[in-house]
Amino acid sequence: MDDVDRWRAELESKRAEKDDFFATHPQSPIPPEERDEFDGLEYFDPDPTYRVTATATVHDDPEVVLMESTAGREVRYLRVATLEFDLDREAEDLEDGTFELAAYQQESPNAEPLFVPFRDKTTGQQTYQGGRYMELEAERDLEDGDELVVDFNLAYSPFCAYSETFDCPLPPEENWLEITIPAGERYE
Q1: What does the alpha-carbon distance between residue 4 and residue 12 come to, in Å, rounded to a whole number?
Q2: Distance of CA 16 to the CA centre of its chain
Q3: pTM of the predicted model, to two decimals?
Q4: If we measure between CA atoms, which residue out of 120, 90, 108, 138 comes closest to residue 187?
Q5: What is the DSSP string of the chain?
Q6: Cβ atoms within 10 A of the Cβ of 136, count?
Q7: Among 48, 63, 119, 187, whose Cα sits 20 to 30 Å from the Cα of 156?
């Protein structure tokens, strides 16, 4: 099994696990009365093109970013890094180039994954209107120039996409990509 096949198998396994959680777990965002009809989330086909290596610029004095939430309140995050990555896509109608996404953490003494909410040209069309999220784990404290894998195939819709009982931060404008990212969870 080559690396791409192994990656694809791991991705499909994570998706099946998430579908099972959504269908059966008491903490699923799918309302209990709708779980019997739930037959899994919609996904874009796995595409290794959207698994990229990003270079981090670390912000030593992280700026506070107030993200609006779906319930209209503001949530405080710290912009801890900027991730720069290239997309080189063979399809003629998709834009190539270098792009940036900000990575955030909440003000917390506990180490937590980098939170990368974003919007792209699929938002509100093929994906949830409130944007999608990724969480990235660094193997150690990030330093300038460190490389990190950003896999858009793992992009997911927040719980508020499935139930109004959840309040979710909306991606700030600096994380609105002016390109199409047909990877990760779909939402129709």
Answers
A1: 12
A2: 18
A3: 0.92
A4: 120
A5: --HHHHHHHHHHHHHHHHHHHHHH-TT-SS-GGGTTT-----BPPP-GGGEEEEEEEEEEEEEEEEEEBTTS-EEEEEEEEEEEEEE---STTS--EEEEEEEEE-S-SS--PEEEEEB-TTBTTTB-TT-EEEEE--SSS--TT-EEEEEGGG-B--GGGT-TT---BPPPGGGB-SS----SB---
A6: 20
A7: 63
- 27-36, 86-95, 116-125: the lowest-pLDDT one: 86-95
Backbone angles phi, psi at 164, to 5 degrees: -75, -5
| For residue 91, pLDDT beyond 60 | no
State how far Cα 66 lies from the chain centre. Answer: 18
